[in-house]
Design a protein that fits this description.
homodimer; 329 residues; alpha/beta; 434 Repressor (Amino-terminal Domain); Rossmann fold; LacI family transcriptional regulator (chains A, B); DNA-binding transcription factor activity (chains A, B); repressor (chains A, B); Lambda_DNA-bd_dom_sf (chains A, B); Peripla_BP_I (chains A, B)
Chain lengths: 329, 329
């Protein structure tokens, strides 16, 4: 038997959900006739009021918060832009906070968004164990991050992406493949690394990952990438954890006189529209951002309406066929 | 004689500015001794309370709103990111709204930000004549847009940038130079066009500008860029109004078998860190974003403290020397 919902009570009583919620909470001005109608519908259906009834009473702000680790990276720019457009079309307004991968700052922004009484939150940041996320009654959906077990997460198949990129590079002759990733151990991005390491091990090759976080200055990124070439003079491929790393690595390599793809193969990750059009030669694992953001909005609405969702939603990745992953003699 | 400020009264009375403000507004719990001290300092200095005293009483939210036409373009991503970092360092938090170049949406977001009681607003959107901007007491600073005569605007020397790019292309042999720009007539970006048109006319060359707005879908941008080549088979150069247009034009040209810079010269505008590192071969006019955002934060603080500012601040541009602007036979 399906669970009886507040909607069912409203339907049977011939009143709105808000009215049912008011009757349940003894609030607002209601005629005795309405109260009786609602109560008899509740009895008839055997309805047990739950959290939803209370949530409906809360003043709706129609405001959704988005919390991201950075907005200067094209991936997060495109993510935020798609979410905002889809949410706005449904009547919500969106405010964006930028946490810069800093847990204190993330808590700060989180509290800010909560105090602005957002109806819901979409998070794409990477810091776990922030107690504010456990605040009951706040619907949250996570994209590409793990917050806690109550919060649904949407991600691309990071493990498969890592595997596919590494297999492709090995098939095309690479043996000394370096990977870049972020320092946050709880990020689903780590699955890209796990996929890479699994395939490397299977092929008796040595894994080596360099940490390049999102929101460090560009000069620092370029220095770290340069270090890869200094410390690994025999490197023959890079599987970059994101396209910005991949694009920057291409420039650093070229400055060192390393020709791509002749001397070095490169595969990136993300495949934003911007990167696919600015640097179409870069082969990259594509996250289906349009579908992922569509689902994020749907899930958030489900949570805001008190409906249950699954914990994890994984989207298959595809590959953008550029020319940086195959040697063309 | 310098104007006597509330700070001076506070200093002389040996109390905080808030206390002075409370005395002036007859609010809060104050001892008669304090009231007497403040009043005698006011008399001694000949202080005339002004708007500042009233503003200090307003509950500070330490929240700054940023309103942008898009966040998926690297220019606005970098702009928002720099502003956010600089503001956060000073103790503010930032919420970002994305207006998608849509006046209704801009009003919507503006009202949203106002209702969230932001202490100040930085706007980079392009829609003029929105009455909400005239709301008294809300400190606003504009970057690269004209809001109204009361609001200070920070911009790069767009006219000079347009001139420099066009002169460079002509020096390097181009004659049929197409420009891209946005449709908003009130955007300072139009000065890039005016600079281009002035130089073209001076050289007896025909100007032709194509409109490509920021927040249209990428496929539409690519179609518009393709149209440029269809309608102008003899085109020998493009001065793009921004780097995204320039980068996309390079890809469209290459797909049509047009070799850059052999058959076509290109110069862009913006010169973000991302683009300079992803596509260093693209010659582009660089806006000094770091300085511009630094000033935006300073100006906003001045306005929040009731101080006057100039109306317009124009930053000189520089050129990023790539290879797309000179024919290398």
């Amino acid at each position: 038997m399906p669970t009886i919902k507040l909607e069912d009570v409203a339907k049977l009583a011939g009143v709105s959900k808000t009215t049912v919620s008011r009757v349940l909470n003894h609030r607002g001005y209601l005629s005795q006739a309405t109260i009786d109608k609602v109560n008899s519908a509740i009895n008839e259906l055997g309805y047990h009021p739950n959290i939803v009834a209370r949530q409906l009473l809360k003043t709706k702000t129609n405001l959704i918060g988005i919390l991201l680790p950075t907005i200067s990276d094209p991936f997060f720019g495109e993510l935020a832009s798609l979410l905002e457009k889809k949410l706005y079309k449904k009547g919500y307004k969106v405010i964006i906070g930028n946490s810069t991968n800093d847990p204190d700052k993330e808590i700060d922004y989180l509290n800010q968004l909560l105090s602005k009484q957002v109806d819901g939150l979409i998070v794409g940041t990477h810091n776990q164990n922030i107690p504010e996320y456990k605040q009951k009654n706040l619907p949250i959906v996570a994209i590409d991050r793990i917050v806690n077990e109550d919060i649904p997460i949407i991600e691309s198949d990071n493990y498969d992406g890592g595997k596919l990129a590494t297999e492709r590079l090995i098939e095309n002759g690479a043996k000394r493949i370096i990977h870049t990733n972020v320092s946050q151990r709880e990020s689903p991005m780590q699955k890209r690394r796990l996929g890479y390491e699994a395939v490397m091990e299977l092929n008796d090759l040595e894994s080596k990952t360099y940490i390049i976080d999102f929101d460090i200055p560009t000069t620092k990124k370029l220095n770290l990438l340069n270090q890869i070439f200094v410390e690994n003079p025999n490197i023959d491929a890079i599987f970059a954890g994101n396209d910005t790393d991949a694009a920057y690595a291409m420039q650093v390599a070229q400055k060192r006189g390393i020709s791509i793809p002749k001397d070095l193969l490169i595969i990136g990750y993300d495949g934003t529209e911007l990167m696919r059009n600015v640097l179409p030669q870069l082969t990259t694992i594509v996250q289906p951002l349009d579908e992922m953001t569509e689902l994020a909005v749907d899930l958030l609405e489900s949570r805001m309406n008190g409906r249950d969702t699954r914990h994890e939603y994984i989207y298959p990745i595809t590959i953008w066929e550029g020319s940086t992953d195959k040697r063309t003699n």
